[in-house]
Write a structure and sequence with these properties.
Blueprint lengths: L2 E5 L3 H13 L3 E5 L2 H11 L3 E4 L8 H9 L9 E5 L6 H8 L3 E4 L4 H12 L1
Parallel strand pairs: 1-2, 1-3, 3-4, 4-5
Helix pairs in contact: 2-3
Length: 120
């Protein structure tokens, strides 16, 4: 069973993603801030990380940079799902170490398709 870490601080968005991925047979763990994301990623060892960018403690860019420094997670796919939609936001996500980028609100089918693509 593939493991997904969802990093999202908005309860409704977190619940939608948790239900979506759980219904598709994924094992799901979640964090609501950047510091918890790094800690959980290290202990949970997910196959995919779905990362919000605007987070408390430290943002998704910083969380991703810190996760990338953990040897066991250096190549784990990170999907940024964010309301940031300016032209340079995609480049900022890439520079931080994200593998893909989706703008909120992400449609469930598109989110699931992108997650599957990154897991293959």
């Amino acid at each position: 069973m593939k493991k997904i870490l969802i990093v999202e601080d908005t309860p409704d968005n977190l619940e939608m993603m948790r239900v979506l991925f759980t219904a598709e047979g994924f094992d799901v763990c979640s964090a609501t801030d950047g510091a918890a994301a790094v800690s959980l990623a290290e202990s949970y060892q997910p196959d995919l990380i779905v990362m919000d960018i605007q987070l408390p403690v430290f943002d998704g860019y910083e969380a991703t940079r810190r996760i990338r420094k953990i040897d066991a997670l250096a190549r784990t796919p990170v999907l940024a799902v964010t309301s940031y939609a300016m032209a340079d936001d995609y480049q900022r996500c890439q520079a931080a170490g994200c593998d893909a980028y989706m703008i909120k609100p992400a449609m469930p089918r598109e989110l699931l398709a992108k997650a599957r693509e990154l897991l293959n």
